[in-house]
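Session log. Operator J.P. requested a structure for one protein chain; no other inputs attached. Running the standard single-chain path with token output.
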Amino acid sequence: MEETERELEKCCVPLLYTAVLESVEIELCEEDEIVVVEFKESLPIGTGVLNMEFEGTLNDRMKGFYRSTYEHNGQKKTMAVTQFEPADARRCFPCWDEPACKATFKITLEVPSELVALSNMPVIEEKLNGDLKTVYYQESPIMSTYLVAVVVGLFDYVEDRTPDGIIVRVYCQVGKASQGKFALDVAVKTLGLYKDYFAVPYSLPKLDMIAIPDFAAGAMENYGLVTYRETALLYDDKHSAAANKQRVAVVVAHELAHQWFGNLVTMEWWTHLWLNEGFATWVDINHAGEIDEIFDAISYRKGASVIRMLQSYLGPECFQRALASYIKRHACSNAKTEDLWSVLQEESGEPVNKLMNSWTKQKGYPVVSVKVKDQTLEFEQSQFLLSGSTGEGQWIVPITLCIGSYDARKSFLLQTKSETLDVKESLGASVSSSHPWIKVNVDQTGFFRVKYDEDLSARLRDAIERKCLSIGDKYGILDDYYSLSMACQESLTSLLALMGAYREELEYTVLSNLISIAYKVARIVADAAPELLDNVKLFFINLFQHSAERLGWDPKQGESHLDAMLRGELLTALASFGHEMTINEANRRFCIFLDDRNTPVLPPDLRRAVYVAVMQNVNKSNRSSYDSLLRVYRETDLSQEKTRILGSLCSCRDPEIIHEFLNFLLSSEVNWDQICKNLRGWIPNNSLHQCNCVTGRFSSPMHFNLVQARRKEVEQFFASRMKPYIARTLEAKHRKGAHQCRMGQKHSK
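Structure written below.
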């Protein structure tokens, strides 16, 4: 709320049944983001109306009410867009800009007559006045300020209706309407699904979704007018990959869930953000400047994981009934975390409040160690820390396990630090004579890591090779083992042995995670033991070849959406690890593509793999592929294609080309202050994601002195650049860095 953005001119309070009281002074407190209005006399107790005249600026910060620019047919165009979450409605108009201060909004806009003007509610009247028109909208239901939205510009749209008669439209730049059809179909179906799930219909007469060229977040759930990045809403059958299609479906479903969880029932304050985003975390927010900091991976991922664990523990039917009751009870109002626990506890009869407090009132999550001894299993919990340090905390952990079969299943609550289970007595099964596999945290529904002793680990590797386990369990074993390895609780050698058990894996979810882990392990080896890197790359090539050969290069008739995504990921991995046959075939197809951009030999699902592959042999004296990719980038107007190319150009191994690419992205003069100026409002969001990306790559604590030096360097860098929205992330990084340095000598050994 900066004075340069809005000038408050005068205020008056027409008290009901009394005279109008004029203000004598208006003071803007920028640091606290409040306005103080002083009147000549004390205001009497009672109901009144505060009238304020003010001026605002259509800014370029991608927050508040801002202008977004784009090109159409070679001409620069501008649209006006709002982004008010979390606390930027105050940049547009004076208001009590807190989620609990709900109100109805009756909006009127005066805009150039040729433009489309959208807001939360349908238009009730338009009046033309020369080159301008005045657009009047229906009064909104009661809602929070951060959900108010306005978009003005030139747009095309596609339209459909739900069986209930709700008008659903997808707006986009002129000429791109066909790219909105998939999102439109998803939205119409999703509204029906949520109506049935929450047992409450969508509460507005229309739903508009619009693609914005310059948009800081992935999407924003404004009531009745949801805004998206173009890549999160538009899908082109000819040029978008299967992964882009999946992203559109997931983002649309996520934002429409907010129309119930967030818009109809809103968190009381940002501490309870998960009630809006559908997840839980432990965060206390005291100042508006800190709110950006909680839109981070912990909020989204921890919260979603805890909710999934609770749904599994209570059962999906009970969980759904409770959510429907919660929505009805708190509709058009605000709620706290404890309100949801209360309804779930009433519906289930389980101690939900006690159980969930152990997850939302303390940081982190546990690792449960499991050992087999005769006919008993020994369980012990402790806080999991990636640094490998011993953490504090104790959780009420819903334990599920299977022994040798998914028919032999046991569940219990681990409420103490340790506990033993007599398997023969509980399940009638023997864990010693026939040596069956034992999987704890069945289908990975619990939000905790599992560490097995050597005997149990060997049994699970065998079960993976014999294809005895579910997709969720195969994924979970690998994911837990990787995290334990990074925390130095398992060796890298044993992790590679486990990865080898997945050589004949066919499932996308498992293989995609396997590929991701392979990249991370290769980076660590490159840093810690570069002389072993070629051997590690060869191991990964052999690991992925079977699955890649099964899928082949060309799509098969009727193949699944997941196979289409997997093909590209496998070929990208093989190219990245230097598989010569993959690189040669990619170069062949790329040459054909350069001559014919519509060739079937390079469909969208293969493009990233091919782009990465052709960059593998690029260097200063052999740069034709780099120049060709840059040309394709400049010629396309599809955001998803531009993103693919930018992500591939940096795959080059030549430092001089990489340096040239960085100059292309920014400029030779760019430093931190220039980045802040260029990216403006985007920097604070998502906990300074760039800082996490950069400092998070300081490869493990294997080099004690290096990590120590870099930690001090980062601290010194930010010492003179501290802001409220940076503080939380840096504090977390400081704690992690301290742990890494303490563990450094152990890793070096």
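Operator note: The radius of gyration is 28 Å.
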